[in-house]
Each structure stands twice: as structure tokens, then as C-alpha cells.
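User: My collaborator sent over this chain with a note saying "see what the structure looks like." That's all I know about it. Can you take a look?
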Amino acid sequence: MNILITGVAGLLGSNLAKSLIGHNIIGVDSLVGGYIDNIPPEIKFVKKDCDALTKEDFMGVDVVVHAACTAHEGLSVFSPKFITDNTYGNSMNVLSCAIQAGVKKFVFTSSMARYGTQDTLPFTENMVPKPQDPYGIAKHAFELTLKNLSKTHGMDFVILVPHNVVGHGQNYTDPFRNVAGIMINRMLQGRQPIIYGDGNQKRCFSDIRDIIDPFHKVIFSDVANGEVVNIGPDDNFITINELAKEIASIIDFDLNPIYLDARPSEVRLAHCSADKARNLLDYSTKYELREILSNMIDWVKVRGTGPFNFNLPVEIQNNLTPKTWVNQDIFNK
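Assistant: Without extra context I'll predict from the sequence alone. Here is the result:
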């Protein structure tokens, strides 16, 4: 099978590409947010921004897995143009090119940000999305467009919603996202983790190794065509404070977090149900939180810690902008 994966240098894209070696894999990435050493040498790599792709890049492709995105919920409140251009705009070009080239199926990697704040937990796929930041709005807007154009042009689609995925290949030097990776990178350098707000925001964390099989299921079968499916555990619902304590315990780090002002529009409680994934895709988890974090810590130790890379714009700077994003020295101290 011919499969094109966008975001192939990122956490999901690179691990998915490695798991599909033996098929004809084309990997696309701009390397803005991913690591080049994540990309398996066995695939064909195209270094392009998604907005620069053309119909010719998709000719002969059976399935597109669109995982590329600047997945920054918090930053989208302060860089709305950049984040929405790279979330909705770039996705539209990938979709248009795929339809022009006659691609049979489009697998879209959406985000838990689509749900926003709901009246009940956990989030289920039949809830009306209420995204509360530009990133989540852009993700949901593309879902609606994907459904519309796929129906019009006769292309199959699946929308998968992974959440808080951790593991080998994750960017841990991005100061704007991936809370576990940021904490691990700082603590391994002997620096205290930074927590926005009181740290009682709650999340569930997924191991990348548990996420791959559901993608295989939708790539190679029709079982979830036309569906939105959450992919991730619905247990181990913990606070950010508890996450910091668990990482510190594994590293044997003397924890004394740095607390800063809460980030505007951050969802307080984000927790997805995995019932639909279990029923449709035989989804199950093999790894508990401590093992998930230990695996990530071991990988960062081998690859090496590093300074945080402030390579993305902060368009709006005012009294609401996190201090760490305005004064970069705070983050790298």
C-alpha cells in the first residue's frame, strides 16, 4: 500500500512510519517542530511545508495520514494567525491535493481541544464540540470541512483524536507544548518544572506505543470510515502537580515547582472516553503512567537534554502573555 504521512518527524508521524516499514511510505515534514533523526531512513522523505505540497506529491497514494500541525493550544491564544494557518490552512492544502490526486482515504489526526469545556466528563464523540482556543477551533473547523468535501468527492475519511501522547520522538525542547517533555527536560538539567496556574488541571497521558495499532486498523480496514474516535486511556486521570511529582520520583529529583500565572483559555479538566475505540478498534492500553514516563525519560537521557527552542512567533504580547514566552531567559535558566 502507498501511504503518505504528514508530520513524519514528529512523535506520532515518525512512530507510525516506523511501524509501516514494508509498505511504500512517503513522509512529509517541514522540520519546524519535529526532529530529523526521528525519520526512518527506509521511507521516502519530502522536506516541505504542507502548504507547499502539490497534486503531484500525492499521485499514486492510497491513504493519507495527516498528522502535521503546530499543536499549540496555549500559544494559539497569542499567535492565532500562525497557529491557525498551520492547523486549518495547511490542512486544507493537504486535503485539496489528496482529492485532486484521487486518494482513497484520508485519516485526520484531530485533538482533544475540539471538546473544550463540557458539562460532563469524560468527553465522548457524540458531544457537541465547544473548542475554546484558536487551535481547537481550527481543528474542529477542518473536521467539518473534511466531512463536507469527502462526501462531495467520494473519499473515505476517519477522524482520530489522540490526547496527551508521550514517548520516543516527542519534542521536549519546545517551550510552548508537551508538558511532560518540558518537565523531563528541565528536571534532567537540575531545574525546577514550571507550572501555570495552581497545577490542579487534570489530564490523562497516552503512550505512543498504545496509539499505533488503532491507526493501523483504520488504514487497512473500513471499520471506522466516517467516524470520529477518541484514542487514549480513560484512566490515570491526574493533575499537573501529580505529573510533576511522578516525574521527580522517577528521576529522584528534589521537587519545588515554579508556579506562574494561569494561561488564558486553558481547559481545566480534559478527559476522553475510550469506549468507542475499544468497541470499534479493539483499543487497549499496555502501559501504566509510571512506565510511560520512565520510557520517555530514558529516551531523553540517551538523546540528550537541550535548551528550549523559541522558533515560533508570539504575535500578541500583553499582560496576559505568559512571562516565559516574553522573557525567554526565564525558561532557559
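A starting point for your reply to your collaborator: The two ends are 48 Å apart (CA to CA).
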